[in-house]
Specification:
This protein has about 300 residues and is an alpha/beta fold. It has a single domain (about 5-300), classed as Aldolase class I (TIM Barrel), CATH 3.20.20. About 50% of the residues lie in helices and about 15% in strands. Strand 4, helix 6 (about 110-125) and strand 5 form a beta-alpha-beta unit. The chain binds glyceraldehyde-3-phosphate (G3H), 1,3-dihydroxyacetonephosphate (13P) and zinc ion.
């Protein structure tokens, strides 16, 4: 089976009122943990690669690892560029085997975001690749870019409609209060569900995307801290809010931080308990299992995407 786009996945998710998890991948163990979970859960999923992941692992290595995952599991896999910042990186991924790209023009003024997104949509569609765009700005850290809370702006529903009509994008990431990284909220977590509902009603049938959607599960923060970590005050989006978002037209939910925390907690624990170990397989095997368990939990309890293949 070749790589697939997210078109069919989103259509089913929208109609079934659940969301597809998009998990960030950087190496073999992360990819294996995710696909093993998807296989057991019979769940759709997206593997996404950031510019930082491409730099770290190399584009070709990542594509080949994903192809290997597809060949060994027989699962349909959508390979997606996460937060493409310009036309060049989107084109490189379209030409280099990805089936979906994100052009993130959210830092630009409205008209510039539209022009950039249109350019990517025209190219990607001519090659059968789908495009996610972003309107509104999330707070938090992504790669080298840090957006302060005061610079974050929620998505305007009227602008969202105009943006989708004028760009022809296939899905839209919106800002309703989530943020990237492990420190999403100071105080009570809150998402603007009224805004989400309005956007969904104004764009019926259109897939919306939620970035910065890790929960920063306290148990994993505590585990990191117990074994020498220092993650005081880390806090994410409560799982019931994500489950609710999936019922309101959000078809794709992005998760990276929770995988990082699960993997890091496992590796920290291993070295405290086995200080004499130096065989990478001894700590990467449990780390891969930790990714698998985290992804299976997300599919079952947060995305509601299990048994939807
Ligand atoms: O939203 C960003 C993702 O968490 C990817 O992070 O750019 O550090 O790979 P990264
Ligand atoms: P988290 O940092 O909440 O995992 O978000 C990941 C993300 O949005 C990737 O694009
Ligand atoms: Zn993101």
């Amino acid at each position: 089976m070749p790589l697939v786009t997210s078109k069919e996945m989103f259509k089913k998710a929208y109609e079934g009122h659940y969301a597809v998890g998009a998990f960030n991948v950087n190496n073999m163990e992360i990819i294996q943990g995710i696909v093993e979970a998807a296989k057991e859960e019979e769940s759709p999923f997206i593997l996404q690669v950031s510019a930082g992941a491409r730099k770290y692992a190399n584009h070709v290595y990542l594509v080949k690892l994903v192809e290997a995952a597809m060949e060994t599991t027989g699962l349909p896999i959508c390979l997606h560029l996460d937060h493409g910042e310009d036309f060049a990186i989107c084109k490189a991924c379209v030409d280099g085997g990805f089936t979906s790209v994100m052009i993130d023009g959210s830092k630009h003024p409205f008209e510039e975001n539209i022009a950039l997104t249109k350019q990517v949509v025209e190219y990607a569609h001519s090659k059968g690749v789908v495009v996610e765009a972003e309107l509104g700005r999330l707070a938090g850290v992504e790669d080298a870019v840090k957006v302060n809370t005061k610079d974050a702006t929620y998505t305007d529903p009227d602008q969202a409609v105009e943006f989708v009509e004028r760009t022809g994008c296939d899905s839209l990431a919106i800002a309703i209060g989530t943020s990237h990284g492990a420190y999403k909220f100071k105080g009570e977590p809150e998402l603007d569900f009224a805004r989400l509902e309005k956007i969904t009603n104004m764009l019926p049938g259109f897939p919306l995307v939620l970035h910065g959607a890790s929960t920063v599960i306290p148990e994993f923060v505590a585990l990191c801290n117990k074994y020498g970590g220092k993650l005081d005050g880390a806090q994410g989006v409560p799982e019931d809010m994500l489950l609710k978002a999936g019922k309101f037209g959000v078809c794709k939910i992005n998760i990276d931080t929770d995988l990082r925390l699960a993997m890091t907690a496992s590796i920290r624990k291993h070295f405290v308990e086995h200080p004499a170990d130096f065989d990478p397989r001894q700590y990467l095997r449990p780390a891969r299992d930790a990714i698998k368990a985290m992804v299976a939990h997300k599919m079952r309890d947060v995305l509601n995407s299990s048994h939807r293949l």
